[in-house]
């Protein structure tokens, strides 16, 4: 049923995109000059992004005393992202959960704790950054989107509550509920490990910076001169759009968020579409080079 809904949403996005392009064909027909030289930094940045996300996997595994080799943590992130492109709702992470379970006996509840922790920390980091950037753009460019700002504030507050006041629950007779309670209690312990949280936050900041430069060069490739402060905010919103991955790897969703964000802060919808699609194309090519290679290397001996 989830797969059916994901394709329905994908088709709906495609239909809306078709009618939007048809109504604004004059804008899309004027394709700006494209410079291939910016593909090189884009490729390098996508690879660095994979490396940073791989380090996050290494840190979470290390928290449970699992010492992953470089081929494992880099390979697992490649497999996960490739899987996300093939399945909806970020189901590609399931391959990583299975690998860690079969090879290192990591319980699925512990894996889910790492996922939940990752989401909470992302809300904290990107919510906070987004609030600061929104206020800076208001100050220097007199542009402000109330909806985006309120959304960022809500995400930031939710993450603060989850980190600083997580409750402890007692087990009961319900087996399924006990698994959920175990997840929450593991997060309670993890949230008290400030040194560990600082490392994860640092990686998320690095990922945001890399994502920002990816969008910068994607805009530059089409000769769009966008203030870097705007790009920093679009990068925040595009990373948060991952949580709306109702289609495989958020295809259509992420590009729409980039385009709408560009429109909301005064850059223009069409420019956002071009930049978002170019970034997607480059990342997909790289992922589908590494993904199959590491799938074979890591999964064949399980």
Structure characterization notes:
This protein has 302 residues and is mainly alpha-helical. It has one domain (36-299). Helix content is 78%, strand content 0%. It is built from 12 helices and no strands. Helix 3 crosses helix 12. The mean pLDDT is 81.
What's the helical proportion of residues?
A: over 70%
Order of helices and strands: HHHHHHHHHHHH
Average pLDDT for all residues: 81
Helix/strand structural class: mainly alpha
Specify Rg, calculated over alpha carbons: 20 Å
End-to-end CA span: 29 Å
Number of helices: 12
In short:
This protein has 302 residues and is mainly alpha-helical. It has helices at residues 2-23, 25-29, 39-63, 70-86, 93-104, 108-141, 146-164, 175-191, 194-221, 228-240, 253-264, 269-299.
Secondary structure: elements and pairs:
Layout (H helix, E strand, L loop, with lengths): L1 H22 L1 H5 L9 H25 L6 H17 L6 H12 L3 H34 L4 H19 L10 H17 L2 H28 L6 H13 L12 H12 L4 H31 L3
Spell out the key features of this protein:
302 residues, mainly alpha, 78% helix, globular
């Amino acid at each position: 049923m989830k797969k059916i809904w994901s394709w329905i949403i994908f088709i709906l996005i495609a239909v809306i995109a078709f009618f939007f392009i048809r109504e604004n064909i004059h804008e899309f027909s004027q394709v700006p000059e494209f410079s291939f030289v910016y593909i090189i930094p884009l490729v390098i940045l996508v690879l660095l992004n994979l490396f940073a996300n791989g380090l996050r996997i290494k840190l979470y595994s290390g928290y449970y005393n699992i010492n992953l080799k470089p081929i494992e943590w880099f390979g697992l992130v490649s497999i996960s992202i490739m899987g996300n492109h093939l399945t909806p709702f970020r189901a590609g992470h399931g391959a990583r959960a299975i690998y860690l379970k079969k090879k290192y006996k990591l319980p699925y509840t512990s894996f889910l704790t790492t996922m939940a922790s990752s989401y909470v920390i992302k809300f904290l980091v990107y919510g906070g950054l987004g609030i600061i950037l929104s206020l800076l753009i208001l100050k220097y460019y007199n542009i402000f989107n109330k909806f985006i700002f309120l959304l960022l504030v809500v995400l930031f507050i939710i993450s603060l509550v989850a980190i600083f006041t997580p409750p402890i629950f007692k087990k009961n007779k319900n087996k399924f509920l006990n698994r959920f309670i175990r997840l929450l209690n593991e997060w309670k312990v993890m949230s008290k490990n400030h040194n560990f949280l600082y490392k994860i936050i640092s990686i998320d900041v690095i990922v945001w910076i890399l994502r920002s430069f990816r969008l910068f060069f994607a805009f530059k490739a089409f000769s769009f001169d966008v203030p870097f402060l705007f790009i920093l905010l679009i990068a925040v919103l595009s990373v948060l759009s991952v949580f709306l991955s109702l289609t495989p790897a958020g295809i259509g969703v992420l590009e729409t968020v980039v385009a709408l964000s560009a429109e909301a802060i005064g850059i223009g919808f069409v420019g956002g579409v071009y930049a978002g699609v170019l970034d997607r194309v480059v990342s997909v090519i790289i992922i589908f080079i590494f993904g199959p290679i590491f799938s074979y290397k890591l999964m064949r001996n399980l």
